[in-house]
Write the structure tokens for this entry.
Amino acid sequence: MEKIIIKFSRVFFWSLLGLVITSMAVAECVYLLNYESKKQLIFSNLTNDQSLRVAAQSNRQEDLIEIKSEITKSDARPVIIEKYLAKYKSPLLPYAREIFEISQTYGFEYYWIVAIAQQESNLCKKIPQDSHNCWGYGIHKNGTLKFENYDLALKSFAEYLKREYFDKGLNTPELIMKKYCPHSDGSWARGVRQFIDEMERGV
């Protein structure tokens, strides 16, 4: 009788232990599935500061670090442009997303259009009347290059930058200055680089 009790106790113990281990494994799988779904939802919608705050409330600190890293690599650039234009109350603010998309289309960094506009016109706040020309290009003693709206101006300037500068290997503020503003004592390039650095640092 005693042997039967001992044998039954062992069977019960190992059965209980197996049930506990199985339950823990199932719980872990459910957690991971929920976590991945939640993270995917955040990645798919995380395009501005408001969404970032939602992510912070919805994830543990170590998860948020990972999410921030992914945003920095991909989604942060349109937000950086928007925040920078908003900070300086630029008329280009409604075109923040378009500026990013145009730079991607033409294959150059997101900050060039904004940094040169900051250097040339205080982000479009000091431009020839009704010109929508924030970059000072096509402006000379024979006339001023004007556009009907900022949309056309942005597309024209992006194409100009790629064709006349980046395609020819002029891809730093100093190299661009030699052609864009050849009479500058270096202040043009220093200004553009400063504005690029401000955007990169999120200042």
Q: What stands out?
A: The first helix runs from residue 2 to 45.
